[in-house]
Amino acid sequence: MTARLDEAAVAYEVNTAHIPTEPVDLADVVTVPLTLTLQPPESYPTPVAALLQRAHHRLLTGGWCSGALVDADGARCMLGAIRAEARGDSGLEASAASVLLDAIRRNFGGVDSVPSSNDAHGSARVPLHMLDRAAGLADARCL
Which of 33, 91, 110, 118 could lock onto 77 through a cystine, CB 3.0 to 4.6 A? Predict the structure, then answer.
């Protein structure tokens, strides 16, 4: 098989050697923004929904971790992001955590706690989705 592939590669080079080509400058082809900034979306009007939305944005921009509220790099788990965005308001934090747990249970059934759900995932994809769903749920409940 290797001999046939080598033979085909040589045949391709011979058959295409007469075609004039001009090198492509990737700067002319690839255009991307020099800096990527993620702006937070317009905030929900209710306090718990707005808190959950800010926590979602914090995880999106600051990083997600499992096994700790905050890791050495400053990344946070779902509860750590809620706590940081609650800015000391324990009642608001508790309400947000309760709505988040409800949203998680609606999707995954019998989950014991927000931290256990956070630590059950290997990437930020599901925790981010759950925070977003919880923000929508809190807004629907006018919380």
Answer: 118
